[in-house]
Each structure stands twice: as C-alpha cells, then as structure tokens.
C-alpha cells in the first residue's frame, strides 16, 4: 500500500470521526494495521528524521571545504580628536571603512576524515530506523493477535454461558416438576455465576488491547476499531510456519548497531589522530576606507604639510583600498597531551564495544533458539489441543444426553462442559502463542515484515 493510500485511509477515518463522533469505526486487517503503523507511528517518523539530520550534518562538514566569505563595515565620528603640542592634531571627523575577507581550506585531514565518519553516522541512523520498524511490526502483530485471542476467548465463554444457561433452565424446569434436586439447580446456577467474572475480565482485556493497538497506529481514542480475522483460521499458517526457519542472526538489528558503533569509534579515532596534522588555508583581504581629514591643517614644526598641488578640499573624503592575500599554515606541536589521551579514550571505547558485541551475540543466539523452541512447542500444543477439543466436545455431547435421560449427574455435565470450554480456550491460546513467538522470532533475526 502506497504512502498516499495510507494517508487517505487515516484521513477518511478522522473525517468520519468528526462527523459521527464516537460512532466512527475502522475495520483493519493485519496488513492494513502494519501499513498504518509504519506510516503514522511517531517512533518511526523520528527515526526517519534522524537519518535526514545526518544528511544535514554531512553537508555542514562539506561546507568546511567551501570558501568562507565575510564582509563588514564601520562608521566612526570623532568627538574629541587626539592632539599634540603646537596645535598638531590627528584624525578625521568622519571615517568610513568596509572590509571583505575570504578563506579557503586547502588541506585539512580532520575534515576529510570527518566526512567518512558522517557516512557511518548516517548508516547507524538508517539501522536505527530499521530497528524501529522491526520492533514496531512485532509489537503491532502481538497487539493484533492479542485482540483476536481475547475476542475468540470471549466468544467461547459466551457460548459456554449460553450452554450453562440452558442447563440452568432445564434443571429449574426439572426441579419445579420434582425431577431434579435443589442441589442440582444450585450447582448449575453457581457454574453460570462463575462465568461472569471471566467474561467481564475478557471484555476489559479487549478494550485495553485495542487501546494499545490504537497507540501503535496513532489512531484517536474516540475512533472504534474492529480487527478482521480469527485465530482458528490461522491454523494452516501455524502448520507451515516453521519451514525454512534458521538460527542465522546476521541481520539482527542490535548486532548490526553494535558493529556500526564500533566502526564509528574507529572513524572518530582517525579524526582525533588527524588533529595532530598540519592544516593549510588560503586567505584574501580587501579593505576600502575613507575619511574627511583636512590635509591643509597638518603642521609639522611650523611647516605646511604637503605641496600646494597636493592640498585636498576639506569637504572631500580621502579613500584608500589596500588588498592582501596569502597562505596560513598551522602545525600542532604541543597541546598538553590532550590529543594523545583522547586517542587512548577512544581505543578504550573500541575495546568495550567489542566485548559488548561478543556478549550480545551470545545472548541473541540464546534468544533465537528459545524463540524457535517456543514455536515448536506451540505448534505441538496446537496439535494436541485440536484433538482434545474434538474429544471434549464429544464427551460433553454424551454427558448432556445422559443428563437429559436421567442417567447422568449435574456434576458430570458440569465437568464435561468445563473441560470443553478449557480445551477450546487452550487451542486458541496455542495458536496465539505460536503467532506471537513467530513475531518475536522475526524481530530477533531482523525480518522487517
């Protein structure tokens, strides 16, 4: 689904919210939920903005190679001019000055190595964004499956409630006709009452699970959502789900992040070492100044300053425009051992990150094996529970027939009904356990979707 389609879905839903208020509702499949989360979740947006930020960081570094040009100007009005004995004074009443400077870095190893470091920084930001997407996909799947499990559990409990209610009604009728004891009626009523707390708790679980999914999808709380699908319908996916699964974790985001952090530290070390190398900068300066000094009043020992032909009109400015250019070489010689200790600090960090990476790999190897074990266990449990459900339903049917014929007891019927309900819940739980374990496995191995 394209970006504009995702935005259209959310816009339509928000528009519906404004028109219908709390009655607005969204129907979401798992695929639509994932697309919406990846396009609207703030965590993903921030991670993508961080990638863009490092593009700007690299452009700033590139700017160090581009000539730097600046201009400035001043105006000075003399209030009291400097004077000497015999009436000799210096300075002008008004002085104007404008200056332009240009510098161009010709040789700066630290800048070049910083550019290489910026590439690694951006790669780390890209991996961080990828990690955010992988984690979000896993969490959205778990939240989605949690809603399906709660809704299916609620359906099983309500079916059980309807069955027990029918038993209570039948037992009451038999009790009124003297065919059943008060104990049988009370036992049936107690079993019915015991189901109500479970139903209320499950309904609350559905509300909380939907709030969690809305948070991941950035959907307003007043928009009702309905997830499309059933856990039991995913049975075939469970049966074929373990094909091709391995313990390969080379795409694990945590490991790749640690590798990039180590590479980044190595680049930082090169930048730090480059600080010991000389830099060469070209410069150019142009100045344009003017003042209204009266040359006719300059008097050196009683003599008039200048020749008659050189006398300037006092109302005019005397302008000058000197220019200069050159090269500046800067060679670091001694900086209090700060550069050496900075290099040692970075080397220490590199050693630390190496140990962290090795330990993290061991942890992740254990995690992926545990996830695979959970997958296999959940699948085998589903096999067993599928058979158990069939047996429990048959046992309840027999018990119900016996009870209605007067050959069975209410305890036998209640036990069979409870066993059937538990078997159906366990079957749904096994499918849920498999799907959540698969989502966790995909996160560990670094699978995005």
UniProtKB/TrEMBL annotation:
Keywords: Cell outer membrane, Membrane, Signal, Transmembrane, Transmembrane beta strand, Transport. It is found in: Cell outer membrane. The keyword Transmembrane applies. The keyword Membrane applies. InterPro entries: OMP_efflux, TolC-like. GO terms for cellular component: cell outer membrane; efflux pump complex. Residues 1-24 form the signal peptide. GO terms for molecular function: efflux transmembrane transporter activity; porin activity. Belongs to the outer membrane factor (OMF) (TC 1.B.17) family. PANTHER family: OUTER MEMBRANE PROTEIN TOLC (PTHR30026). This is Outer membrane protein. It comes from Alistipes finegoldii (strain DSM 17242 / JCM 16770 / CCUG 46020 / CIP 107999 / KCTC 15236 / AHN 2437).
């Amino acid at each position: 689904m394209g970006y504009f389609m995702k935005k259209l879905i959310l816009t339509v839903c928000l528009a519906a919210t404004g028109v219908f208020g709390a009655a607005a509702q969204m129907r979401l499949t798992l695929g639509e939920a994932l697309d919406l989360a990846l396009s609207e979740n703030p965590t993903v947006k921030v991670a993508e903005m961080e990638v863009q930020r490092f593009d700007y960081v690299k452009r700033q570094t590139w700017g160090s190679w581009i000539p730097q040009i600046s201009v400035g100007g001043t105006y000075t009005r003399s209030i009291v001019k400097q004077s000497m004995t015999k009436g000799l004074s210096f300075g002008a009443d008004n002085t104007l000055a404008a200056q332009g400077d240009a510098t161009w870095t010709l040789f700066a190893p630290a800048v070049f190595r910083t550019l290489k470091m910026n590439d690694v920084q951006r790669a780390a930001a890209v991996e961080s964004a990828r990690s955010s997407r992988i984690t979000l996909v896993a969490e959205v799947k778990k939240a989605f499956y949690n809603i399906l499990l709660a809704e299916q559990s609620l359906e099983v409990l309500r079916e059980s409630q309807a069955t027990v209610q029918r038993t209570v009604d039948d037992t009451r009728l038999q009790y009124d006709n003297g065919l059943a004891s008060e104990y049988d009626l009370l036992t049936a009523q107690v079993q019915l009452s015991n189901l109500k707390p479970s139903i209320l708790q499950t309904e609350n679980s559905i509300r909380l699970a939907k709030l969690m999914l809305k948070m991941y999808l950035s959907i307003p709380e007043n928009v009702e959502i309905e997830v499309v699908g059933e856990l039991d319908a995913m049975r075939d996916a469970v049966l074929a789900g373990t094909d091709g699964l391995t313990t390969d974790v080379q795409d694990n985001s945590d490991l790749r992040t640690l590798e990039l952090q180590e590479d980044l530290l190595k680049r930082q070390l090169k930048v730090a070492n480059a600080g010991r190398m000389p830099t060469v900068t070209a410069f150019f300066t142009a100045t344009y100044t003017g003042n209204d000094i009266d040359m006719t009043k300059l008097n050196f020992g009683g003599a008039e300053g200048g020749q008659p032909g050189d006398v300037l009109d006092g109302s005019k400015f005397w302008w000058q425009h000197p220019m200069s250019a050159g090269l500046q070489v800067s060679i670091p010689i001694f900086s209090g051992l700060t550069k050496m200790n900075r290099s040692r600090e970075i080397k220490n960090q590199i050693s630390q990150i190496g140990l962290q990476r090795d330990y993290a790999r061991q942890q992740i190897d254990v995690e992926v094996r545990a996830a695979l074990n959970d997958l296999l266990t959940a699948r085998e449990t589903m096999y067993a529970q599928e058979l158990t459900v069939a047996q429990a339903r048959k046992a309840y049917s027999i018990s119900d027939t016996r009870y209605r014929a007067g050959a069975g007891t209410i305890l036998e019927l209640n036990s069979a009904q409870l066993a059937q309900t538990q078997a159906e819940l366990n079957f749904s739980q096994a499918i849920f356990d498999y799907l959540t374990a698969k989502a966790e496995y995909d996160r560990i191995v670094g699978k995005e979707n």
